[in-house]
Amino acid sequence: MSKKRTGFVAWYDKVTAWNVEDLFVKRKPPGPPRTIFVNEPLPEDHYDHKHRIKKEYTYEPNQVITSKYTVFTFFPRNLLEQFRRIANVFFLAIAVLQFFPKFSTISPGLVILPLIVVLGITALKDAYEDVKRHQSDRRVNYSEVRVLAGGSYANHNTMKAKSRTFVRGLRRSGHGKTKKPEGDLQNLEGAPPEALDASSGPQILEDDPALEYDDGAPPPADDEAHHGLFHHHHGPGRPHWKRTIWEDLRVGDFVKITDHEAIPADILICATSEDENVAFVETKNLDGETNLKSRNAVAALTHLRTATACADPKNAFRVDCDRPEVLMHKLNAAAIVNGERSPVDLQTTLLRGTVLRNTSWVIGVVMYTGLDTKAVLNAGGTPSKRSKVERQMNPMVFANLLLLGVMVAVCGIVDSVLEHRYYPRNAPWLFDDNRRGDNPSINGLITAVFALITFQNIVPISLYISIEVVRTCQAAFIYFDSEIFDEKLGQATVAKSFTLSDDLGQIEYIFSDKTGTLTQNAMVFRRASVGGKVYIDEPLPEEDPVEPENEKELLKSTPDLAQVSDVLSASSSQKHGSTGDIPHPLEASGVKLSGGVLQRFRNATLSTEISNATATQSADRLRIDSFWTVLALCHTVLAGVDPHTGALEYKAQSPDEAALVQAAADVGFEFRGRDRDVLFLRTPFSPEPQRFRLLNILDFTSSRKRMSVLVRRLPLAGEAGQDTGPVVLLTKGADNVIFERLADGSDELKDITETQLDEFAREGLRTLTLAYRNVAEEEYQSWLERYQEAIAAIEDRETLVEAVSNEIEQGLTLVGATAIEDRLQDGVPETIADLKHAGIKIWVLTGDKLETAIAIGHSTNLIASDANIVIIRGKGDTGRSIYAQMLRATEEYFPETGILNDPMVNTEQLSAEASNGYPLHRVNTGITSIVGSQNGQRPGGYVLVIDGLALEEALSDDRHKHLLLQLAIQCEAVVCCRVSPKQKAFVVKLVKDGLDTMTLAIGDGANDVSMIQAADVGVGISGEEGLQAVNSSDYAIAQFRYLKRLLLVHGHWSYARNGNMITNFFYKNIICIGVLWWYQIYCGWSSAYVFEYTYLLFWNSFWTIAPVIAIGLFDRLIDDRVLMAIPQLYRYGREGKWFGAKLFTVYMVEGVVQSAIVFFIILYGYFSPTARNDGYDVAQYEFATVMAISAAIAANLFNGLNTRVWTGWVFFAVFIGIVLIWVYTAVYSVIAPGWFSTPVYGNDHFLFHSALFWLSIPLTFLLALLPRYLWTAWSFGFDPNDIDILRWNYRLNPQMDLIHDAYLRQSKEELAAQEQAVPPTPYSASRPSMTAARGSQIDMSTGLHSQSRGFDFATEENGVAMRRIQSNLSGVSPAPNPERRNRRSQILRSIRHPLSRRKRPPTEISEE
Question: What is the CA radius of gyration of the chain?
Answer without folding.
Answer: 38
